[in-house]
Amino acid sequence: MAVPLTPSSDPAIIATCAKLIKSLPSELEGAHRRGVAGTDSTVNQRAAAWGSPATVLRCAVTQPPATIVGGPDYTPDQNRYATMGDTAFVNWLIEEHQNSVTYTTTDRAVYVEITVPFDGELQKQAASNALVDLAPMIVKNVPNKSGQFVDDKPE
């Protein structure tokens, strides 16, 4: 599956993404992990896909225009956000499309985006299950904006 990525040559970002990708499960919501391809030489260190049609995770994407304060696409009253996870919480910007939902982290030092396909209202509601499954790996491998990992928080 071809996965487009925003180019990044920052070794720290590539290392963070590679660590995240390595930690991801071989199965997600009953779908098997599949290979990814793309024009970026780091695609295998920055992207993962499961199933067909694929749920796709991309690491080190650009900040969503809808979250840039003062930007032309900033619409805080129309943006939908959710904090999802069982024990590890991640804040997500939710952008619905005709046949998919894109979730982008808003609280991480590196933006992570997950696009989940659906073909009915029931699947649309269940799309967030993937986020609950992936949140612990994101929290453990991608620091928040202040540079902390889940293990850095005081008990």
Description:
With 155 residues, the chain is α+β, with helices and mostly antiparallel strands. It has one domain. It is built from four helices and eight strands, in the order αββαββββββαα. Strands 1-2-3-4-8-7-6-5 form an eight-stranded antiparallel beta sheet. A hairpin with a 3-residue loop joins strand 6 and strand 7. Helix 1 crosses helix 4 (129-141). The longest helix is centred in the N-terminal third of the chain and has 13 residues, at 11-23. The radius of gyration is 15 Å and the shape is globular.
Concise structural overview:
The protein is of the alpha+beta class and 155 residues long. The protein is built from four helices and eight strands.
Jot down its keywords:
8 strands; alpha+beta; 23% helix
Task: Give the total of domains.
Answer: 1
Question: Strand order of the main beta sheet, please?
Answer: 1-2-3-4-8-7-6-5
Strand content: 25-35%
Category from helices, strands and their pairing = alpha+beta
* Helical content (DSSP H or I, runs of 4+): 10-25%
Number of helices: 4
Order of helices and strands: HEEHEEEEEEHH
Radius of gyration: 15 Å
Number of strands: 8
Average pLDDT value?
83
Q: What is the 3D shape?
A: globular
Main beta sheet: 8 strands, antiparallel
Question: Regions with pLDDT < 50 over 5+ consecutive residues?
Answer: none
Distance between the termini: 42 Å
